[in-house]
């Protein structure tokens, strides 16, 4: 069976985890935590990077940092993971869902302004598949109405919008190191980046269970104590050690995934040209990271049949998300503003194919051949072998 996902392993993770164990420093803020955070601060050119137990935890921190409270409204797409909404619902906010763009599956920036009310506190753009939302327009809207911008960049590490890293546009950016992501900390993990100096000290207080412990270790206070609201938001040292084994080869992982993504695209292009499927659309000003390769089929019924056909041929596939506004909790804690023109329809057409660091060309060929058979498309010569060969040479070099 070709799995849908396999967590990446580059070779040094075990060595670093053992080093962390022998250091006797297994809690948060150890040597590997600091090394990772310094790497992210340099790579993303941000003010502060804080490793967290999950992206969910990082999002919860942003809700605390922006003082979200009961009665506030937060705008986001309905096509996202539950954590995007839960972080703000936990503070009493009402979620206002708006429609997505069918090309990128991201929030439709042209629908945001009409959803703003006097209760709106923040906009949460979600960069689906590492493809950026239209951040220029979103930031202009946020500035006009004095709103916070919190980027859900769970899938967006190593991605950019007009040359600038995702997660660095808003007041905060959040990332995931779940085992399904391009880089993992061994299962669960996350990152909060702070892009505004005003929030740095408070972010560390919330991160350190509401204490000024960080200031104590910096020698800025004589003793540390409880000074505000917070929780246990530090990543443990073993997870940070595993993550360090990944990010020291961040470029290799990124290049490999983009290589595989492009192979998929070229293999499946003939099916799109025949109008049988649709392939992902990447705006020219966006650099993605090959996190997801998906196809869009005719409808939900066809998708179900294709999933079953792939399974019969030893291939695991998946889809997501069921739009939050149609879920029981979404109806209770949020509302959809405007018309659901694309969110539900496009979500029911999307099918994710296996995508991971160790995926082989032979496995991709089998997946593509199986999809082609499903659509009774037999002209496998349409696959551009010369392109594949050139891609292999470029990747090895």
Keywords:
397 residues, alpha/beta, Aspartate Aminotransferase, domain 2, Aspartate Aminotransferase, domain 1, eight-stranded mixed beta sheet, three-stranded antiparallel beta sheet, 15 helices, 13 strands, 39% helix, globular
Q: Report the C-alpha radius of gyration, rounded.
A: 22 Å
State which percent range the strand residues make up: 5-15%
Tell me about the largest β-sheet.
8 strands, mixed
**Widest β-sheet, arrangement of strands:** 1-9-8-5-4-2-3-12
Chain-averaged pLDDT: 94
Number of strands: 13
Shape label: globular
The class by helix and strand makeup works out as alpha/beta
Instruction: Please indicate the count of domains.
Output: 2
Helix percentage range:
25-40%
- Write the CATH homologous superfamily of the largest domain: Type I PLP-dependent aspartate aminotransferase-like (Major domain)
Give the uncertain stretches in residue-range form.
Answer: none
Could you tell me the CATH topology label of the largest domain: Aspartate Aminotransferase, domain 2
Describe this structure in words.
- The chain contains 15 helices and 13 strands.
- The chain has 397 residues and is α/β, with parallel strands linked by helices.
- Helix 6 links the parallel strand 4 (120-123) and strand 5 (148-152).
- The protein has helices at residues 13-22, 31-44, 55-65, 82-89, 112-115, 135-145, 200-207, 213-217, 237-247, 250-273, 300-312, 328-333, 343-347, 361-374, 385-396; strands at 48-52, 73-77, 94-98, 120-123, 148-152, 160-161, 164-165, 172-176, 190-194, 286-287, 294-296, 334-336, 350-352.
- Helix 1 runs antiparallel to helix 9, helix 3 runs parallel beside helix 4 (82-89) and helix 10 packs antiparallel against helix 15 (385-396).
- It has 2 domains: 13-247, 3-Layer(aba) Sandwich (Aspartate Aminotransferase, domain 2), CATH 3.40.640.10; 250-396, Aspartate Aminotransferase, domain 1.
- The mean pLDDT is 94.
- Strands 1-9-8-5-4-2-3-12 form an 8-stranded mixed sheet, sandwiched between helices.
């Amino acid at each position: 069976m070709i799995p849908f996902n396999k967590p990446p392993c580059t070779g040094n993770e075990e060595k670093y985890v053992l080093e962390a164990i022998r250091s006797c420093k297994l809690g948060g803020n150890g040597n590997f935590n600091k090394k990772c955070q310094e790497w992210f601060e340099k790579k993303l050119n941000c003010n502060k990077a804080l490793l967290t137990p999950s992206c969910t935890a990082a999002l919860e921190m942003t809700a605390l940092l922006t003082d979200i409270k009961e009665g506030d409204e937060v705008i986001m797409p309905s096509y996202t993971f539950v954590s995007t909404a839960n972080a703000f619902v936990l503070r009493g906010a009402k979620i206002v869902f708006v429609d997505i763009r069918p090309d990128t599956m991201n929030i439709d920036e042209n629908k945001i302004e009409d959803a703003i009310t006097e209760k709106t506190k923040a906009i949460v753009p979600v960069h689906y598949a590492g493809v950026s939302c239209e951040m220029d327009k979103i930031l202009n809207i946020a500035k006009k109405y004095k709103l916070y911008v919190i980027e859900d960049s769970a899938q967006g590490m190593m991605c950019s919008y007009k040359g600038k890293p995702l997660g660095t546009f808003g007041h905060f950016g959040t990332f995931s190191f779940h085992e399904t992501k391009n880089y993992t900390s061994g299962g669960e993990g996350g990152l909060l980046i702070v892009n505004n100096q005003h929030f740095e000290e408070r972010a560390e207080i919330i991160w350190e269970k509401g204490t000024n412990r960080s200031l104590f270790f910096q020698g800025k206070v004589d003793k540390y104590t409880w000074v505000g609201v917070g929780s246990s938001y530090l990543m443990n040292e073993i997870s940070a050690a595993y993550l360090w084994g990944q990010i020291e080869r961040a470029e290799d992982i990124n290049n490999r995934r983009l290589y595989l993504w492009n192979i998929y695209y070229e293999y499946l292009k003939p099916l799109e040209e025949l109008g049988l499927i649709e392939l992902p659309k990447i705006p020219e000003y966006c650099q993605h990271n090959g996190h997801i390769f998906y196809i869009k089929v005719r409808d939900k019924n066809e998708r179900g049949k294709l999933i079953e056909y792939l399974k019969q041929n030893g291939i695991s596939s998946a889809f997501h998300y069921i739009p939050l506004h149609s879920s029981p909790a979404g109806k209770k804690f949020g509302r959809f503003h405007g018309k659901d023109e694309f969110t539900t329809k496009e979500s029911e057409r999307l099918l994710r194919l296996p995508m991971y660091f160790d995926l082989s060309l032979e496995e991709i060929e089998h997946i593509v051949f199986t999809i082609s058979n499903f659509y009774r498309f037999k002209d496998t010569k349409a696959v551009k072998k010369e392109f594949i060969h050139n891609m292999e040479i470029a990747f090895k070099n």
